[in-house]
Each structure stands twice: as C-alpha cells, then as structure tokens.
C-alpha cells in the first residue's frame, strides 16, 4: 500500500477548503468564508513545500494566507494592546536591511570593476524604466492622487531583495544581480526622492530633503551596521546567516499584512484594478529590462539578470517611505499589492528560464545570495 505523505494530505485538505469556500460564496455566506479561504492558502503553501517544482512558490502562497487574514480580520493587524502595528514597518525594514548588509562584503562590489558595463546598464535601466512605467500607469489609472503616487513610488524604488534568489534560479549572473541590488539600494536615498519630486509632485507634496533623510535611516545606517558586523564577526556567528533570511521573509510578510489591514477599504474597492496595473508594471519591467540589456550586446545570462533586477522592486522600502509620509493606507497600498504579485511573476519567470540553460551560463554558488 502506497504511503500518503503529509504534503499530499495538505493538498487534499486545501482542495476541500477551496470547495467549501466556493460553496459558501454561492450561498451568499461571504462572512463565513474567512477561515476556509485562509486555510486553503496555508495548506497549499505547506503542500508546495513537498514538491521541488513548486517549492519556490510556497512563501508567496503563505503571503496570500496572511493577506487574506488581514482582509477578513483587519482589526487584529491594526492595533495590539494600544500599539499601532504600522509602527513596526520601519524597524522591520531596518532589520531586513541590516541582514542585507551583514551578508555583504567588498567582494560583492568587485563586479563593478570586472563588468562595469553590466552594472551601469542594470542600474540605469532600473531607475529609468520602472519610474517611467509607474508614471505612465499612474496617469492612466484614474485613482485618487495618493494611491496613484503609490504606483510611482514602487517604480522609483530600487530592485527587490528577492531578485538575487530569482537570478540564481533563472540561471542568470548571480554576482551581477547582487551588485546591481546593492548599488541601486545604496543610491535609493538620493535618487528615489528626486524621481518622486519629478514624477509624483503633481499628485502629492514631496519634501526631497526629508525623504532623503528618512530613506537613509531605513537603508544606509542599517546596511552600514550590517557591513561592520560582517567585518567583525564573519564566520563566527553562522547561525545568524541561517536565521536572517527567515527573519527577512517574516518581516516582509508582516509589512504586507499591516499595509493590507490599514488600506482594506480602499483595497476592496480598487484592488482588482490595482492588480492589473501591478501586473502591467511588473511584466513590462521584465521585457524592457531584458531588451535594454540585449540592445547593448549583453549575453543571455546578463540580460536575464537585468530583466529580473528591473522587474522586481523593493516593495518593502516603498512601504517604509509611505509610512514616513504618514500615508500607509493610501500611498502604501500599491506596495502591498505589488509585493506578493512580484514574487509570483518572478518565480514563474525564474522557473521558465531554469529549464532553458543559456550557452554562456557558469554554475554559481547559491551561498553568494542574500
């Protein structure tokens, strides 16, 4: 008799939860669907862990479970014992950035000297293509000014931390990916406020100096602390290197949940349309990023890297900036929607490319990634 694994049981249980959810929706019992909808995503995320081809989607599925919880029961994610949970967004982001700094060293920047062309094209594409797309989509959206500004803010943010993992899975140039992520992140305190003033100034008031200072607190200081920590304790605290990615993932999940709960009412109204704009922004980012690299005669591995770096934004940072502006429920809404969707599309693109090994691909060490 064939033994049924825990992951198979989770798959069947997820299917049953989905059937119950659909049945309750048909019966008009929307309020009763909450526990079953949440259970569906949780069980599906667990099930995905048992299959090599689906494992990369598990975290994203669990993010959807968390988002569903925030949509059904927002009060649990707004205030806890008198403390507003939005106050956690910036500290969580700083912890994530500290983890990024702690996993970096000067060797990560050697690629700037070795392949300056790839780095320059990647960084330039990131800060030209995505802000421009954000501006076009924001003006097309018809959303209220602060929500439209949120789309531009995501576009003006640096490449996302997940891009290094996606680059490795996509058989792209991991070293180049890490360098582009690091440089766009370090440039963000200076470039993002200027781009926001230029592109989003018609939607909201932007104080460039204040935004620079806020982003510096969220990025420069914690990354610098992480670099110093790495220099002093490198190789001496192996447990930290293992636990930081988990802390980062939990931090990102918590940020998205708090944003979802804060902007729940707006999200229920414009959510579907915002998802469409998120997909357009993300998809065109991949396409234009890839072809901007090919236009400058970059090889296939490097072109894949630029596509992923351009297409994946740091939605967590966008959330922190929105919090700093005191507009998490409006400006921060786009980041809450774009974040999970980027993980899905990034995983799909990485899986597609993983099966198509480029001729110039060189096997790389996954421990290089953040």
Describe the protein.
The protein has two domains: 1-81, no CATH class; 83-368, Na+/H+ antiporter like fold, CATH 1.20.1530. Helices cover 72% and strands 1% of the residues. It is built from 16 helices and two strands. The chain has helices at residues 6-26, 34-48, 58-72, 89-102, 110-114, 116-141, 145-156, 163-169, 174-200, 208-218, 220-233, 238-262, 264-295, 300-311, 315-324, 333-354, and strands at 79-80, 83-84. It is globular, with a radius of gyration of 20 Å. The protein starts with 5 loop residues before the first helix and ends in a 16-residue tail after the last helix.
Report the principal-axis shape: globular
State the low-pLDDT regions, or none: none
Compute the gyration radius: what is it? Answer: 20 Å
Largest sheet: 2 strands, antiparallel
Can you tell me the CATH topology of the largest domain?
A: Na+/H+ antiporter like fold
Q: Fraction of residues in helices? A: over 70%
Provide the spatial order of strands within the biggest beta sheet. Answer: 1-2
- Average pLDDT for all residues: 87
CATH architectural grouping of the largest domain = Up-down Bundle
Query: Distance N terminus to C terminus?
Result: 43 Å
Order of helices and strands: HHHEEHHHHHHHHHHHHH
How many helical elements? 16
Structural class: mainly alpha
Number of structurally distinct domains = 2
Number of strands: 2
What is the name of the CATH class of the largest domain?
Mainly Alpha
């Amino acid at each position: 008799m064939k033994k049924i694994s825990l992951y198979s049981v989770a798959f069947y249980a997820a299917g049953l939860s989905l059937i119950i959810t659909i049945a309750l929706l048909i019966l008009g019992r929307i309020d009763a669907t909450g526990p079953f909808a949440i259970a569906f995503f949780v069980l599906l995320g667990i099930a995905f862990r048992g299959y090599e081809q689906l494992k990369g989607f598990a975290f994203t599925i669990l993010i959807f479970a968390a988002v569903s919880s925030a949509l059904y029961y927002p009060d649990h994610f707004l205030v806890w014992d008198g403390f507003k949970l939005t106050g956690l967004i910036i500290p969580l982001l700083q912890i994530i950035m500290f983890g990024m700094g702690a996993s970096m060293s000067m060797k990560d920047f050697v690629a700037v000297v070795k392949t300056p062309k790839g780095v320059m094209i990647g960084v330039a594409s990131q800060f030209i293509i995505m802000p421009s797309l954000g501006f076009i989509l924001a003006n097309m959206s018809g959303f209220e000014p602060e929500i439209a500004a949120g789309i531009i803010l995501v576009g003006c943010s640096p490449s996302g931390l997940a891009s290094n993992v996606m680059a490795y899975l996509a058989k792209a140039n991991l070293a180049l990916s890490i360098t582009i992520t690091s440089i766009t992140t370090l440039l963000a305190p200076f470039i993002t406020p200027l781009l926001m003033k230029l592109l989003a100034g018609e939607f909201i008031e932007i104080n460039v100096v204040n935004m620079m200072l806020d982003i510096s607190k969220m990025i420069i200081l914690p990354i610098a602390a992480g670099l110093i920590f790495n220099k002093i304790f490198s190789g001496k605290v192996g447990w930290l290197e293992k636990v930081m990615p988990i802390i980062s993932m939990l931090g990102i999940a918590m940020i998205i949940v708090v944003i979802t709960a804060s902007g729940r009412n707006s999200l229920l109204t414009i959510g579907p349309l915002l998802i469409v704009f998120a997909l357009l922004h993300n998809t065109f980012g991949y396409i234009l990023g890839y072809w901007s690299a090919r236009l400058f005669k970059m090889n296939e591995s490097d072109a894949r890297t630029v596509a992923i770096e351009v297409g994946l934004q740091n939605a967590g940072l966008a959330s922190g900036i929105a919090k700093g502006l005191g507009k998490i429920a409006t400006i921060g809404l786009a980041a809450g929607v774009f974040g999970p969707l980027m993980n899905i599309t990034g995983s799909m693109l990485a899986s597609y490319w993983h099966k198509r090994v480029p001729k110039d691909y060189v096997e790389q060490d996954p421990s290089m990634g953040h």
